[in-house]
Structure formats: structure tokens, C-alpha cells
């Protein structure tokens, strides 16, 4: 919303966002692909890191994250700053 309607957004706060979107490799993070690669370390990290918010629903969390990365592949600090400065004029 901030990038699309900068005049409507005064500030933006993210919680727990440790990475920028990776649209080109997003499918690597789908649960079935992680399970196929036997990436148990990453899976366990997702379970533990996001348990409070998702009650262990790491698969739903990752599906939502992958969908967000694909829907907003160019959302980064530069696009947010440009949207913010455009809204100031």
C-alpha cells in the first residue's frame, strides 16, 4: 500500500522481516520443496521463529511469504523511499 498510495501512508513498520523479497527463487521456499530437499534445519528454524504468530503453522506461513514475494517482487528500501518522497510533494 505504501508504494502504491504514498499519500495515504504516514509511516511503515515491519515486524520480523529479515529479508527482502526473492521472487526469482521464491518457489525454493515452498514447504514441499523444502521437504523434498530435506532442509530440516530451515524448517525447524521457521517452526521455532514463527511459533508465537503461527502456532506451528510453518507451511501456511511460508506459502503466504512466497505469495507475497511473487506479488511484490520490487518492494525494497528504494521503492519505499521513492513512494515516501513522492507523497511529500
The string of secondary-structure elements, in order, is HHHHH
| Helix percent band | 40-55%
Please state roughly what percent of the residues sit in beta strands, choosing from under 5%, 5-15%, 15-25%, 25-35%, 35-45% or over 45%: under 5%
Count of distinct structural domains? 1
Our Rg estimate from Cα atoms comes to 16 Å
Q: Average pLDDT value?
A: 78
Number of E-type strands = 0
Head-to-tail CA distance between termini: 18 Å
What summary fits the major beta sheet? none
Anisotropy-based shape: globular
Which residues form runs of ≥5 with pLDDT under 50?
A: none
Number of helices: 5
Instruction: Report the structural category.
Output: mainly alpha
Brief summary:
By secondary structure, this protein is an all-alpha fold.
What labels would you give this structure?
mainly alpha, single chain
Topology at a glance:
Layout: H1 31-36, H2 40-49, H3 51-54, H4 58-71, H5 77-88
Structure description:
- The chain is 52% helix and 0% strand.
- With 89 residues, it is mainly α.
- The chain is built from five helices and no strands.
- The chain has one domain.
